[in-house]
Amino acid sequence: MTTTSERVAGSRARQASQRVSQSVFDGSRLRVVLLVDVYDGAQQQFLEAYEQLCNQVASVPGHVSDQLCQSIENPSQWLITSEWESAPPFLAWVNSEEHVAMVEPLHSCVRDTRSLRFHVVRETGGPATGADRAERRLQSSPRIGDGVIRHALTFTVKPGSEEIVAKILADYASPEPQVDDTTRLCRTSLFMHGNRVVRAIEVRGDLLSALRHVSRQPEVRAVEEAINPHLEQDRDLNDPESARVFFTRAALPAVHHVTAERMDAQAERYALYYPTRADGGMKLAELLARQDEAAADDPRSPVLRSTIFQRDDCVVRLIDVRGGLEAADPGQALGLSDPGQVAELTTLEDNAAGASASKDGRLARFLERARMDLVTDRRSPDA
To answer: pLDDT tens digit string along 130-185?
Structure first.
C-alpha cells in the first residue's frame, strides 16, 4: 500500500510548472540571509548570543552550515547566512516555539533585522549533471514570479467573542495603499473559522515596508487596540518585545502559489482551513500544492488561483473559484479528491457522518467544515 507521504515524496522530481510562481517544495537547497544591525557597544553580547544560537541550531534536522560576517564599512552591521537541505525543514524550525525561545537573547542587542530566503538555483564549480545534480539539489529552472508577495497572519480570539471581533475587523477605513515609490498594497482578505482569524495580504514591492506602513496607520492601530481584550494570546503593542513575539507567532507564510492561464474577473475568493493531525502540516501543504499544480492544467477545474499558507499544524488554502464554491465539485474545491487522504492528514473527519456515506457526500461535508467565514475582502484601486 502506498501512503500519502510516499506519494508526496515521489512527486518532488517532477518538472516545475510555469504556472507555479512560488513554492517551497522544489527540493533544492535553501540559503537564508539575515541582515542584522547591532546596537553600538553590544557587539560582544551579540557574539555570545550568536555562539549559543549556533550550538543549538547545529542539531536541527536539515541544517547544513552557517556563517557570521561583519561589515568592513560599518561594524554595527552584521550578516548571518545559513544553508539548509531544503526549505521545509528550515520553515519547520523557524516557525517553532523552540526558535522563538532560541533567538530571544539576540533581541536585547539588535536594533533591526531583515530575513531573506533563497533557493539555490546555480553555483560555481562546474555544471551539475546526473548524480551530481541530485546530490547538489539545484533547481532545474528558476520560477517566473508575478510580482506579488503573499503573506498571512493568524491568531485566535477568546471563545464567545467571535461576533464582536468580526465586526471590529470589518468596520474600519482601508489604509492608504501606496507605501512608497516601489511598494503598494494590492489586496487584504480576512476570514474566520471558529475563533481563528486569518488575514491574508498581497503586496507589490517590499513586504516588510508594507507591514510597517500598515502598522503605523491610525485606523489599523485603532482596530488592533480594539481586539486586544479578545485575544487568547496577550500582547501590548506599546511594548516592542511583546508586539514582536505576537507577530512572530502569528506569521503564516505562503508556501505555494499557482495560477491557471484562464482567468475570470468575476471569480469569488474563499479560504479553507485544514486542521491537521500532529506534525502533518507540511505534508498536507505539499500534497495540496501538487494537487493544485495538476488542477491548473485542467480546464474543468473551477479553481483559478490558489495560495497555500502553512505554519506547524495550521494549513490555510486561499482560492479564487469560478462560479462560486456551491457550484464547484467538492473534491476539486477542497484540493483533495480522496476521502481517505482527508482522514489521514486532517481532523475534518466527522465520525457522526459514517464511513458508509458516498464519496461525494463525504467530500462535500469536509469542504463545508473547512470553509472559513469571509469578514472582509478589499482591493486597492489599480491593484
So the answer is: 545 445 566 667 787 888 999 999 999 999 999 999 999 998 888 889 999 999 99
**Integer CA distances (angstroms), 75 to 36, 45, 78, 119, in order:** 11, 14, 7, 28
For residue 251, the Cα-to-chain-centroid distance in whole angstroms is 7
Residue 19's alpha-carbon distances to 58, 304, 323, in angstroms, are: 36, 11, 21
**pTM assigned to the model:** 0.88
What would the grid cell of residue 351 be? 465520525
Whole-number Å distance between alpha carbons of 193 and 104: 31
Closest CA to 114 of 209, 202, 213, 50: 209
Torsion-angle region of 198 (φ positive above 0: left; ψ -120 to 50: alpha; else: beta): beta
The cell 510597517 sits on which residue? 212
Can you tell me whether residue 288 is helix, strand or coil? helix
pLDDT digits (tens, 9 = 90+) for 58-78: 999 999 999 999 999 999 999
152 near 359, Cβ under 8 Å? no
CA distance 68 to 56: 15
